[in-house]
C-alpha cells in the first residue's frame, strides 16, 4: 500500500525536557497520525493541538489532502477530543487499503478489545 517513511516531532518544556511527541507516516495520500502523547503535567495546555497543527502544516507541504488516525471511541481524550478538532469518523467502507492494514494490525495486537475507529480531517485547500 501507499505507506512511506515516518516523521516524528516533539515539544520541550523550558527545562528542555520533552513533554509531548507526535509520530506520523504517509498512508494512501494522507498523513496518518500514529501516536500523539502529552505528559500529564503538560495536559490541557494546547500542546496536543499544537502538534496536530504542525502535522497539518507538514502534510500541506507534502501536498497531502488529509490527516488520518485511529483511536478509541470511548476515551474522552481520544475520539471525542479529535471530533472537537474537526476529525470525523470514517465508515468501514470508506477506509483506504492502508487504513485497513493498520486496523488489522491493531486487531492482531488486541486493541480491538475496546471500540476503535478511523478518523479523518481534510486539509484546507492551498491558497
UniProtKB/TrEMBL annotation:
Keywords: Acyltransferase, Transferase. Pfam families: Acetyltransf_1. Coiled coil: none annotated. The keyword Acyltransferase applies. Residues 1-124 form the N-acetyltransferase domain. It comes from the Bacteria. Transmembrane segments: none annotated. One of its GO terms (molecular function) is acyltransferase activity, transferring groups other than amino-acyl groups. Gene3D superfamilies: 3.40.630.30. SUPFAM superfamilies: Acyl-CoA N-acyltransferases (Nat). The keyword Phosphoprotein does not apply. This is GNAT family N-acetyltransferase. The lineage of its organism: Bacteria, Bacillati, Actinomycetota, Actinomycetes, Kitasatosporales.
Amino acid at each position: 500500500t501507499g505507506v512511506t517513511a515516518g516523521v516524528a516531532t516533539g515539544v520541550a518544556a523550558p527545562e528542555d525536557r520533552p513533554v509531548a511527541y507526535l509520530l506520523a507516516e504517509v498512508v494512501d495520500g494522507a498523513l496518518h497520525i500514529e501516536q500523539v502523547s502529552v505528559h500529564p503535567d503538560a495536559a490541557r495546555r494546547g500542546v496536543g493541538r499544537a502538534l496536530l497543527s504542525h502535522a497539518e502544516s507538514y502534510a500541506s507541504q507534502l501536498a497531502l489532502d488529509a490527516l488520518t488516525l485511529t483511536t478509541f471511541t470511548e476515551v474522552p481524550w481520544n475520539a471525542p477530543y479529535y471530533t472537537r478538532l474537526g476529525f470525523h469518523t470514517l465508515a468501514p467502507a470508506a477506509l483506504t487499503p492502508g487504513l485497513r492494514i493498520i486496523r488489522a494490525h491493531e486487531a492482531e495486537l488486541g486493541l480491538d478489545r475496546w471500540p476503535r475507529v478511523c478518523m479523518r480531517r481534510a486539509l484546507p485547500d492551498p491558497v
